Amino acid sequence: MTDGQKNEDPKLQVEAARKAFEQEFERFANFADNSGSLSNVDLARAEAEQRALAELRTRHLGKKSALAASKKMIGRVPAEERAAFGQLVQQHEAEITENIEQVDAAIKRHLESARTTREALDVTLPGRRPRRGHRHPITVVRERIEDIFVSLGYAIEDGREIETDFYNFDALNIPDNHPARAPQDTFYTTEGFALRSQTSTVQIHAMQSRGAPLRMIAPGRVFRRDTPDPTHNPMFFQVEGLCVDRGINMAHLKGTVGEFLRRMFGEQTVTRFRPSYFPFTEPSAEFDFSCFKCGGTGCRICKNSGWIELGGSGMVHPNVLRSAGVDPEEFSGFAFGLGIDRMVALMYGLDDIRLLFENDVRFLEQFD
Ligand SMILES: [Zn+2]
C-alpha cells in the first residue's frame, strides 16, 4: 500500500489513524492499571502524564487530526457507503474519547488523593518533636548559686569584662610589682585596658555606685593567660561575693560560706578555712568543703583527702574599701570567690574542663 492509495481510501485512512492512536496510547493504558488506579506514581510524574495526555487528545481529536480529516471526507464517500463510513468515523472518535477519558479520570483521581495526602495533617502520627535547647551546665550551676545568694539577701551584679588597671589591680590593692600584673599572666589590650583577671573588680564598681552597706554577688567571665589543659582555660567563670556593713567579721564570712555550701551540696556538708594570702583581703583564707561524694572518707573526686578545695575568701582589705570610697573605720566586710567551671567539673565528674567550651551538643545535652 502506498501513501497515494491510503489517501484515496477513506476507510484505510481511518484504520491507519486508529492504529496510530493505539500505538501512542499504549503507554497511557499501561500507566493506569486495569483498575484504573496509579500506584507508586509521584505527583510530578502524574502531572507530566496529564499534560502529555492532553496533547494526545489534541493530536487525535483536534481540528488538524486525521479524524477531523476523515469527517470531511464523509461527503465524498459514495452514497451507498456513506452511512457505514460515517459509523466507522464515529466509532473511531468514540474509542479515542473513551480511552483518553478513562486515563484522564484515573490521573485526576490520583492527583487529588496525592495532593490531599501531601496536605493532610495526620493527627495520629507522633509528629516531629521540636528539639528543645537547654541551659549550659555552667549556667545551671551559676543559677543555683544565684538562687541561694538571692535568698540570703544578696544582689546580683553584672560587671564589665574589660577593665582599667585601676579596677583590675590598684583598687584591689595589687601593687605594681605583683606577678598578677605581668603580661604573661594577663591579657592587655591597647591603652592600658586589660581583660579582667578576677570578678573582684565588680566589688569596687558596686561600692562606688551603691556605697555601704552592701551585699552582692558577681558571677562572670574572667581571663588569664593560661595554656589550656584539663584543669585550666584562659577564660573561665567565677562568682564573687561581697558583704559590707557595720561590724562584719570573719564569723559572718564562715557562716555565709558554710550556709551556701550546705544548700549547694547538702545539710551534712562541713566547711573548713585555711589561712592564705590575697592582696585584697586581710586576713585571707581558702575554704574547702567535705567531699559531697564520699562525705569525707576519701574517693577519686577528693583525691582521697575527704576535702574539696573550692575558693578564696577573707576580710576586705581596708585599702580596698578606701579606694572604693567606703570608710574602713565605719564599715568592714568580707569577700569570697570561687570558680564555677571547677564546681561544674566536680559536680558532673568531668575530667577535662575544656569540654565545657567546645560547644559539642552531644556532650552538653547530657546535663540539665
Ligand atoms: Zn571524696
Plain-language structure description:
- The chain is an alpha+beta fold and 368 residues long.
- The strands form two sheets. A seven-stranded mixed beta sheet has the order 1-4-5-9-8-7-6.
- The N terminus is likely disordered.
- The longest helix is centred in the first third of the chain and has 41 residues.
- It is 43% helix and 18% strand.
- Helix 2 packs antiparallel against helix 3.
- The chain contains twelve helices and nine strands.
- The site of zinc ion has 8 residues, from loops.
Element layout with pairings:
Blueprint: H1 3-8, H2 10-31, H3 43-61, H4 66-73, H5 79-119, H6 137-151, E1 155-156, E2 162-164, H7 165-168, E3 193-195, H8 201-210, E4 214-223, E5 235-245, H9 250-265, E6 271-278, E7 281-290, E8 307-316, H10 318-323, E9 332-339, H11 340-348, H12 361-364
Parallel strand pairs: 1-4
Antiparallel strand pairs: 2-3, 4-5, 5-9, 6-7, 7-8, 8-9
The structure holds zinc ion.
Zinc ion binds at residues 291, 293-294, 298-299, 301-302, 306.
Summarize the structure.
This protein is an alpha+beta fold.
| Average residue pLDDT | 87
Structural class: alpha+beta
Instruction: Name the ligand types.
Output: zinc ion
Number of helices: 12
Q: Report the portion of residues in β strands.
A: 15-25%
State the share of residues found in helices, binned by percent. 40-55%
Order of SSEs? HHHHHHEEHEHEEHEEEHEHH
The biggest beta sheet, please? Answer: 7 strands, mixed
Give me some keywords for this one.
single chain, 368 residues, alpha+beta, seven-stranded mixed beta sheet, two-stranded antiparallel sheet, 12 helices, 9 strands, 43% helix, rod-shaped, disordered N terminus, binds zinc ion
